[in-house]
Amino acid sequence: MPPRFATTNPEKTYLFIAVGLLLLYVFPYVWLGEGAHLTVHDNLDSDFLYLYLLKLTNTAFDFNLSTVIPNMMSSGPHAATAFGGIPRSAFRTGLNLEVLSFYLAAPYTAHVINLVAVHGIGFLGMYLLLKKYVLPESHWALAQVSVAFLFALVPCYIVHGASVTGQPLLLFAFLNLLNRQGHWSNWLIIVLFPFYSFFVWAGLFICVALGLIGLVAMLRDRQMNWDYLSGLFLLSLLYLASEWELIYGFVNETYISHRVEFNYGQLRSMQLKDSWHRTRNLFLWPMFNTGAFLTRGIFAVAIAGAYQALRKRDFRSAKWLIGLPLLALLICLIHAFYHYVVMWLGDSSLGMKFRVFQFDRFYFLLPTLWFILFGLALRQFEANGRWVKLFLAAQFVTMIVANKEWRINVGKMTGHVTEAEYPSFRAFFAEKQFAQLRNYIGKPQSDYRVICLGMHPSVAQFNGFYTLDSYQNNYPLPYKHAFRKIIAAELAKGTPKMRAYYDAYACRAYLYTAELGLNYLFGKTQHPHLKHLQIDTDALMALGGEYVISAVPIDNAAENRLHLESIFTNTESYWKVWLYKVMPTGVEPQGIMSGTPTRNLSSSLYTRTVD
């Protein structure tokens, strides 16, 4: 270790304790295994599934722009309307290390590997940054390690890799280049970062932020820093190389994305007071997928620190302690008012670009910004003093409260949280139960299409089914219109919010119903019945839909030409599944009017239970 990073004995003790606590953080996920709960929203329902799907379809390392993944949003072989599926370029690049981890390991194992890596990188990066640039004196060892540990607890989404937690490490490397300390390790960090982060979510905004930092420094010093510029050029170039398929598709519009119909006027209030509320909320509670935690404590410490700095006439420190919260506020304003810009640009070419690619995602920088501010604010108090210890303890409590998924898994370990409340990974994807469905249908899964009701289609997709419905951030626009025909009557009966959610957004092309609303997580301990389902069965069949996999019973199945084939239950599964077959016009098998199976069997026999 270079001399500048020499550690004292107390610091080694603090580091040992921090690493031990991080291992305790990971422990529930290891102990519970697939019995652990993983966040469903924007994770198991989408991004997690996409990473596994690349392995399932053997397209992880397919770089052909014409490759299409047919497992979702593709029409069946006998469909009247032909849709091929989702372009491979809409998914994560095969050059990403997270894609590689899912390819080499089982999906849950890959998640745990990335969990350790993401939080470990966060701790290491913030520790190095604080130790060298924020709290460099040896008597700040406790704060260095503690703040780094607290940053490592930011509950960001693991499927984004190091997009959030890797920022301090990347900033550390670039600050070294800014100070003309071009050690090989700095270049290694820069080279690896684009391959373990995501350009769309954070990469572009990190490059912009680093560019502004370099510009200000070079204007201040009145000289060019070629090492820094070379590092920024290398980072940008490697992002372009790693995400070239996605970027090429965006620039050249290889297909018209459904995102061109995003209507922010319907999705968000256009009143200034509501935009200000969004600004305030994001300032006090960062976006959920970047790692949401209450920032009031850090903000209060920053205010107290600024007051202390002004009292001591330390105007340089006061400038940072006031400037960084203002920068955070600016980032929040950009996000809250972004839709005004999109609406103003309208249907122009530039306006379409601003709809398809959200240029307001600077909020991915907020967790790093807040914790750097926290470290700077602590400098205004006595190192190892009671105030510093109190601030660190309070922030620790804040981070534990923010880690909902971790708290749920601790609850599962202690028996205080049940599967009915929060399904485990195993229960959510229900592989044994869906194997029964697959065997019951008895045909190659590529030969037919299913649609899900009352559950996320990712469950069926994970188990190899080809679904008409899906949660996709980017897919061809014509499919949105074709799918809408299936649910048009239900959207008309539903709330204005439900209609807007599809017509102005439609990333979730789901089988919405007015009775269930925007809820798609009905477990077997819940007992809703659909009594007035009204779908366009002809439109469903036009896309090749043959089966409905439903988490709720459909009382008027016959009116929608749906025939109940069988019911599947499983002790390990979160779901109870009703399997309906879509019937052509005029075909009425025995029992269809009552919604019962054609087999003349008692319910106890046609309900299939798997241990």
From TrEMBL:
<feature type="transmembrane region" description="Helical">
    <location>
        <begin position="142"/>
        <end position="164"/>
    </location>
</feature>
<feature type="transmembrane region" description="Helical">
    <location>
        <begin position="108"/>
        <end position="130"/>
    </location>
</feature>
<protein>
    <recommendedName>
        <fullName>Glycosyltransferase RgtA/B/C/D-like domain-containing protein</fullName>
    </recommendedName>
</protein>
<dbReference type="Pfam" id="PF19510">
    <property type="entry name" value="DUF6044"/>
</dbReference>
<keyword id="KW-0812">Transmembrane</keyword>
<feature type="transmembrane region" description="Helical">
    <location>
        <begin position="12"/>
        <end position="32"/>
    </location>
</feature>
<keyword id="KW-1133">Transmembrane helix</keyword>
<keyword id="KW-0472">Membrane</keyword>
<feature type="transmembrane region" description="Helical">
    <location>
        <begin position="362"/>
        <end position="381"/>
    </location>
</feature>
<dbReference type="InterPro" id="IPR046107">
    <property type="entry name" value="DUF6044"/>
</dbReference>
<feature type="transmembrane region" description="Helical">
    <location>
        <begin position="283"/>
        <end position="308"/>
    </location>
</feature>
<feature type="transmembrane region" description="Helical">
    <location>
        <begin position="229"/>
        <end position="251"/>
    </location>
</feature>
<feature type="transmembrane region" description="Helical">
    <location>
        <begin position="184"/>
        <end position="217"/>
    </location>
</feature>
<feature type="transmembrane region" description="Helical">
    <location>
        <begin position="320"/>
        <end position="342"/>
    </location>
</feature>
